């Protein structure tokens, strides 16, 4: 069954009334609907093959302002001729003009046309008729018609009139506009449908609770939608793309048996440096490597007195670690200097000192860290580090490589791994991990090592500790297809909204 | 990390093998010394190499680099026979007044050198690098090189008043006194702070009272200049740490020996009370470390024999003597200042063995993975916010007082400020979270509304009691902004959040300048204040250049987490 919407039904019925064929403007006038509505209905009817639409270009004649004036007051030559006839067919020009009440600018036009039309001639300042012209010329008739009907279609005029129209156009009394005219014609199918009778069901667009409750929905027609039409954009609530990625890394680390650690953002130099066997005059501690707190300058290390005494000795002479030590005078005051955490390893030290430390134990942290860098495509001044430790008896370099390989495969989805000697003041041996992934190439993915005895022994840890850090930001950039690390903390809501799963 | 420049042609010549110009291939070789090509200017022939190890100043020039690589590449093994040919007869008398200023000096005479511009440029670069890094910008040590043939020993390392002594400093033509040097010479301006606080300054003179140098500032232009014609060189290092001074001298001397020089010792006569002694420098004798085979294998997880370990240590350029079946006596060259513990030798064994030749091992340890219990709680809160249609954002914890207080129409309070900020917009840690969100909205006015954003993040509050003088809270802040945003909407959203956390809450009228009076309140769970809620005051919106109404809340989720624990305790 063919389903028609109300406007379509109305259009079809009116078209039938108009003899099965009508122009769009005729239909519009008859239906009392806006032209756009009729047009939409017509297109729908056409797509159902109930009507045909014929398009035709039409030239429409309309009067110019000047043409309108002449249509009402008469052409200048007619006005002068009338005056001349009143003056018995012969009169000096100025008299005739005065009689005709012609303005100066029209005089030459009137004279020109009098001569051209053969109505009168000017001789030695005297105007003389050459006979009596017909009462209404064809040009005047067209002007009158146009004044009455506002317009005329050029194609519908007889050949003589059409010629005249061209003439009037030259005189700038009419303009010709080109328009597309649509003619609707009922097809055979359309006729058949009308004969069968068109369903007169009420159509609704919104199904309302009332329609459902009253059961009225059975009697109405639910309008078909153009389901392909675009709709307004909806933005979902979702995780930040980077945090979603971090959550994923976190859950993988948990699956691999790692426990999360936590610790403060404002940190004691002791945990950030000293306990990691970084000497107090180490270049990394210089003002450009770390953010120092303005005030108060020092924290309270009294809780860690015993450990610090051992760390102090280790720095100065190696204590009982078997090391030579750094051989300088260690300052307790310097150890209490407050800074913003520079690396996640500070957390590992706190964990190793904790009474809850489990051996064997595996720990990780996703730590916000700070370094006084100028922010650019590859540097952030505030960033996240994914770090951790493995603590157990008999751990070896092979275990360290094993942990790294596992990360590369599980977290980076790497196809191949490569190890290079690396350097950290607190690990020995130290290893850099590179991971290869098809389509991405090699990326440096992490740094790691076994904590030096000078780090572990003062903390009372007598078993090997593997420490690792993952280049998580570079991995995120690779996965997100970005080459600018600033996107991690982007302020661009549009980017966050549009960024799909990473 | 130290970055050094070496001249490629010179490097290839010293190395004695073809290494090509492929950066990846070069990096494979440099991996043995933890080095990486940072830049290769083929036109100028300059290779810029970053050496990761900050504790290996012996690798910071082409001679040292080559010495180490020769071992790993199998071109040479063990420690070369470096020796002091004889006593040069040069004595250096040290004035006791230097004790509090710059007490130590070490010298060596290197003869029979065949220098050229490349070698001299290399020496200057090494001197610079050592002064800056290992010498801590000349505070700890500084190096001077002199044409030995122009000197008249014995030398006197002594002091002088700033205006008492004059000489022509390197690179200048006119004589200047020490005070003028500190004011006018570029090196004086750069390093003057090291000596300026003293009444007298260090000075190195020869027996004719001619100035060799004004340590650690500048050499004499007459005596302290090395040219390709110079055959015999005096190397001198002054500094504040005895050991560092000796180590620095060794690094320079070993490089000159590698270039064919013959080293002669000098005698330093100190006049310090308690340290009234005579020291002969340089001191290039190797120290020893006893390395147990078992220890090496225990660290590396390998089963290497003593012989194999000795071979690998030879590649790392150590001399080794067997001490029974299970121990090795390892001779540590004096320039290997990084060898502090047997563990450092173990790493060299591993590097010589090749990291990629070691089989990785993944052991299943009986550990249970877990996030912090509070992390789980926070993740749940995030989930609810997302379910309520909020976009999660991530912002810096670093901010500034303008954002935290002035733009929020609050009186400034104490925050944790940075002593050395890098930019004016990042000067302190945030003490509340909402300003971060306001800033975010301010940067997104052109983006489609409605905008609903939230963040769960850390804030830091000064706290005298804490060991780090701070207290941290995890806050959750959310803002909704659109043409019809208002209090009712945000209250309904906060209610959805808190009830989803299985808690009941109340709101109590409050005064908070950030919000519209009468449309803001304290958020309370039981008797505990956990946050604020309200419609943002138009003054605040204006301060952030925002034109749409906004309503927000901020709650302390770490406190709420503790409240849920109390609940279950009951």
Low-pLDDT runs of 5+ residues of chain B are: none
- What is the level 1 CATH name of the largest domain in chain A? Alpha Beta
Please give the count of helices of chain B: 16
**In percent terms, what proportion of residues of chain B is strand?**
25-35%
Residue-averaged pLDDT of chain B, rounded? 94
What structural class should be given to the helix and strand makeup of chain A? alpha+beta
Number of domains of chain B: 4
Provide a descriptive summary of the structure in words.
- The complex is a heterodimer of chains A (502) and B (570).
- Chain A contains 20 helices and 18 strands.
- By secondary structure, chain A is α+β, with helices and mostly antiparallel strands.
- Chain A folds into 2 domains: 65-168, Arc Repressor Mutant, subunit A; 242-498, BirA Bifunctional Protein, domain 2, CATH 3.30.930.10.
- In chain A, strands 10-13-14-18-17-16-15 form a 7-stranded mixed β-sheet, with helices on both faces. Chain A has a 4-stranded antiparallel β-sheet with strand order 1-7-2-6.
- In chain A, strand 15 and strand 16 (427-437) form a beta hairpin.
- In chain A, helix 4 (65-73) packs across helix 8 and helix 5 crosses helix 7.
- Chain B folds into 4 domains: 3-72, Phenylalanyl-tRNA Synthetase, Chain B, domain 1; 84-281, 3-Layer(bba) Sandwich (Phenylalanyl-tRNA Synthetase, Chain B, domain 3), CATH 3.50.40.10; 287-353, 2-Layer Sandwich (Phenylalanyl-tRNA Synthetase, Chain B, domain 1); 373-569, BirA Bifunctional Protein, domain 2, CATH 3.30.930.
- In chain B, strands 4, 5, 6, 7, 10, 11, 12, 13, 14 and 15 form a 10-stranded mixed β-sheet that branches. A 7-stranded mixed β-sheet of chain B has the order 19-22-23-27-26-25-24, sandwiched between helices. Chain B has a 3-stranded antiparallel β-sheet with strand order 1-3-2.
- The radius of gyration of chain B is 34 Å and the shape is elongated.
- In chain B, 46% of the residues are buried.
- The mean pLDDT of chain B is 94.
- Classes of the chains: A alpha+beta (502), B alpha+beta (570).
- At the A-B interface, helix 12, strand 10, strand 11, strand 13 and helix 17 of A face helix 8, helix 10, helix 11, strand 19 and strand 22 of B.
